Amino acid sequence: MSRRIPALGLAGLGLMLALTGCGQEAPVSEGVAQHAATELLQVTQVHAETGMTLLEGPVLDGQGNLFVVDVPAPAGEAKLLKIDLNSKDVSQVHTDGTGAYSSAQFSPADQRMYLSDIAGGRIISMNADGSDVQVFFEGDVDGRRVSPDDIAFDKEGNLFVSDFTAFPGAGVDAAQAGRIIRIDGETAQGSVVAENLPSTNGISFNEDYSGLWLSQYAANRIDLLALDQTGMKAASVQPAIYVNAGVAKVDSNAVDAAGNIYQMFEHDARIDVYSKTGQLKAQIRLPDDAQGLESATNIAIEPGTTQGYATVSGKSGGYVYTFEALAEGISQSNGG
């Protein structure tokens, strides 16, 4: 691991996330379908030690369970949780002393759960029950530490990871230093797919795996990265969708079977849904009585159905809300 960029501690992570008091009342876009989300359950409370909670990385296992990570959970408290969607029971799957996990996803190659540790600069894997924890990737790529945020798997089980730079102490220009890193699913060797990006956060393959939708945190827009014939490098990166975000920031994204892009936000509890040609088709919002929830940061749509789940967090705690998606879920809308 590089010593030139120090590992991000939970204190620095708290500065980056800064959830409390930052919600906004985003304007309703005229002519855009409005969809209401429904509270499923509260999953976490604000942690006394870190002063916050932030649920991320929702992923379904196909057996009635939804997994989520709690990014700022302190040592010893649940960092990966499992929600039984039938009973609504919540149980701890994994904790450790240092990790700050920002995404979770099952690999199509080995069916193990992969978690990105944005603070520790590593990716770990484990069985769905939390057993057999292994460090899958750790270290530098092209001489620079990786801060893995979101993960997108290709069909073969290779990982495409957003290298997030917009946090205090990174020592780089967030507007230019973001990267997309490919990590080989078998060898765990990392390579640069694209660089000089404005701190990419969300990353999802489009519906035919020819490219990746990138949520550019430091530019508040969504770009389309087209892959070359090898599937390992960027053929082009083009600005695709300019987002009306105000003080909010684009966070994770997801793609459904129709190719719609679901864009989530830090500092605004809403989800914007765009067509692949850039039209804002719908907005998914919390009910008016949902107080103290400032960020809707990620979703999962159950493959083969339109049942969606959103992770929503703020000073009231960490919650899961449900919603009706515009099209059926696929791998690209389940985890990451």
Write the layout of secondary structure elements.
Elements: H1 10-17, E1 33-36, E2 38-44, E3 55-60, E4 65-70, E5 80-84, E6 90-94, E7 101-106, E8 113-117, E9 122-126, E10 134-138, E11 140-141, E12 144-145, E13 148-153, E14 159-163, E15 178-183, E16 190-197, E17 200-205, E18 211-216, E19 221-227, E20 234-242, E21 249-255, E22 261-266, E23 270-274, E24 280-285, E25 295-301, E26 307-314, E27 317-324
Parallel strand pairs: 1-24
Antiparallel strand pairs: 2-27, 3-4, 4-5, 5-6, 7-8, 8-9, 9-10, 11-12, 13-14, 14-15, 15-16, 17-18, 18-19, 19-20, 21-22, 22-23, 23-24, 25-26, 26-27
Summarize this, please?
This protein is mainly beta and 336 residues long. 2% of the residues lie in helices and 47% in strands.
The percentage helix is under 10%
Q: What is the name of the CATH superfamily?
A: TolB, C-terminal domain
Number of strands: 27
Q: Oligomeric form of this entry?
A: single chain
Q: How much β-strand is present in the residues? A: over 45%
Radius of gyration: 18 Å
Q: Which CATH top level class fits?
A: Mainly Beta
| Uncertain runs | 1-8, 18-24
How are the strands of the largest sheet arranged? 1-24-23-22-21
User: According to CATH, what is the topology?
Assistant: Neuraminidase
Assign the CATH architecture. Answer: 6 Propeller
**Terminal Cα separation, in Å?**
23 Å
Biggest sheet descriptor? 5 strands, mixed
